[in-house]
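C-alpha cells please, single chain.
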Amino acid sequence: MTVTWEELGWERLADGVGRCRLPGWDCTAGLVLGADAALMVDAGSSLEEGARLREEARRLTGRRVTHLALTHPHFDHVFGAAAFPDAEVYGAVGTDALFAPGGQGRQALRADAVAEGLGAREAREAADALVPVRHEIRGERRLDLGGGRQVRLADVGPGHTGHDLAVLVPGAPAVVFCGDLVEESGEPQAGPDAVPARWPAALDRLLELGGDDGLYVPGHGAVVDAAFVRAQRDALAARFGVSR
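Here you go.
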C-alpha cells in the first residue's frame, strides 16, 4: 500500500515531485514520479541511507526507482547509489571516471567521508560499491517518465565541483534540483574541486532553467526562490572576485 509524502516526512513540491532532508549532513534527496518511471535525485551519504530512500520511494509509488540522477560527485550525495542496482544512473560528463574502481576519485571520496564523520567501514563499503555512471550528460538531455512527465537533465557546471548536474521538472511552478550549487542552511562550500570562476555562471544557468517563479531545491537547506539564487550568485561573485 502506498503512503503520502507527508506520512514519510517528505516535502511535496508539486504534483508527483517531492524531496526529503536527510539527517547528519542535511542533504536533500528528490523524487520525481511519472506514469511509467520514477527518478531519484541523489542517493544519500551511505548504503544505509540509500536503502532507506529506495524503500521510501517504493512505499510512495508501489514500484522501484528506475532512474537515478547524481547532482555532483561528493560522498554525501552519492554513497547510497549502490542501493539502486537496477536504476539507470545519470551524472554530468566526467563523473564516471571519478568512480572508476581503484582510482583516486574513490579514494578521495572515502577519505573525505571519514574526515567528515562517516564511519571508516561504512565509507569503505560505499566507496567500493559505487556504481558506474552509464549516462553522462553534456549539455542537456530529456527523460520521459511517462504520462506526460518530462524531466530535463542539464550539465550546468563546473562550479561547486567540476561535474554539476541540475534536474529541471517543468510545471507551474517549475522545480529545479540544484545540488550544492545552491545552499540555504549555510554558506556554499568551496572545496579543492570547486571552480570558483565558473560558479556564478552556473547559477545564471539555473535561473534560466527555472525562471522567476521556479522553486529551487538546494543540496542543503530549505527550498528557495529565484531571488535567493540571484543573491547567492552575487555573493559568490563578490567572494571569488568574478566580474559580471
